[in-house]
Design goal:
With 308 residues, this protein is mainly alpha-helical. The protein has one domain. The protein is built from 13 helices and no strands. It has helices at residues 3-27, 33-58, 65-88, 94-101, 104-116, 122-138, 148-174, 177-199, 204-209, 211-233, 238-245, 247-260, 266-284. Helix 1 packs antiparallel against helix 10, helix 3 (65-88) packs antiparallel against helix 7 and helix 8 (177-199) packs antiparallel against helix 10. The longest helix has 27 residues, at 148-174. It is globular.
Length: 308
């Protein structure tokens, strides 16, 4: 898969997550966050499991204990990010949630340098700031007074950034992206149901009321989008992946307008333009210094890592 196609997959994942923000918000009217997370990821696990078995059948070697351990670590990061985000939606607006979750765009390259000494192409820093500025403008250029939910969103962005970094490392090393996604989902589903049984009341009536949101976010926002993230990140760099995935804020604003009757002011439209510009720059600029070989396409492996 080419890097451009991988980035398109990540853009599509951002679209699905943008729509999922609306579903996550409306689901909280009927069901507790932990119950919602547990049920959502049960659906996600069931959606992806058949494809994980197919992938396992084509694999040249079985997964090792360290591979499964890596997948479970990713699952714990995903669960932490989901709990913080879903709980935060109880006490903050969807607009604030979209902006604050987008902080992972800046956190990914910063944590990459701190944890792994991975210095991205200089344009990534510019695009990260542009994308974050665009997300801020989508919020109207201001944040309604910080609430507990806002701080939870910021903490969640930290775990999204960590997950994005480690997915990039594990996906490249292990080469089983669908299995990786499936194990993550199973970990989150188990942890969500156990925590819901302890801290919330699980009632059939509330589950029925939230069923459309559970099914949509389980099958698409989790099952499809997180799998696309796992596949796409294997063929691009973590900072570039974060910038393309930040399009979820743009799509959240779009679907908020279509489904909830929200309308973007001029500053919000300008924010959309900045996000789109950052995605174009991070895709095009790193390639300007490299010429395609006469015999074929330039692969990601042929580009020095420090230039990605």
């Amino acid at each position: 898969m080419t890097q451009s196609r991988a980035n398109l997959l990540l853009l599509f994942a951002g679209l699905i997550w943008g729509l999922g923000f609306v579903a996550q918000s409306t689901a909280m009217e009927n069901i507790g966050p932990l119950t919602f997370i547990g049920l959502r990821f049960i659906v996600a696990t069931a959606t992806v499991a058949p494809f994980a078995f197919m992938e396992a059948g084509r694999a040249s070697k079985p997964l090792s204990f360290s591979d499964h351990k890596a997948f479970m670590i990713l699952g714990s990061m995903l669960f932490s990010g989901m709990v913080l985000q879903q709980t935060g939606l109880l006490t903050t607006s969807v607009t604030n949630a979209g902006f604050l979750t987008g902080l992972y765009v800046v956190l990914v390259p910063i944590l990459g340098v701190i944890l792994f000494s991975q210095w991205p192409h200089p344009v990534v820093w510019i695009c990260a700031v542009l994308s974050l500025t665009g997300i801020f403008m989508l919020s109207g250029g201001s944040l309604d007074g910080f609430s507990q939910g806002d701080w939870l969103m910021i903490a969640g962005a930290f775990f999204w950034a960590l997950q994005g970094l480690f997915i990039a490392r594990y996906a490249l090393r292990i080469g089983r992206p669908v299995t990786m996604a499936c194990v993550q989902f199973a970990v989150v589903a188990f942890a969500g149901i156990v925590c819901a049984a302890i801290f919330e009341q699980i009632e059939w009536q509330t589950i029925q009321a939230a069923a459309p949101e559970i099914l949509f976010t389980g099958m698409f926002s989790s099952g499809v989008a997180f799998t696309l993230q796992a596949i796409g990140t294997r063929y691009t760099s973590a900072p570039q992946a974060a910038i393309f995935l930040s399009s979820e804020a743009l799509f959240a604003a779009l679907f908020g307008a279509i489904l909830l009757g929200e309308r973007l002011p001029f500053i919000g439209l300008a924010g959309c333009a900045l996000i789109f510009l950052s995605m174009l720059m991070v895709e095009i600029v790193p390639r300007l210094r490299f010429k395609k070989p006469a015999t074929g396409k330039t692969s990601l492996s042929e580009i020095p890592a420090e230039n990605l």
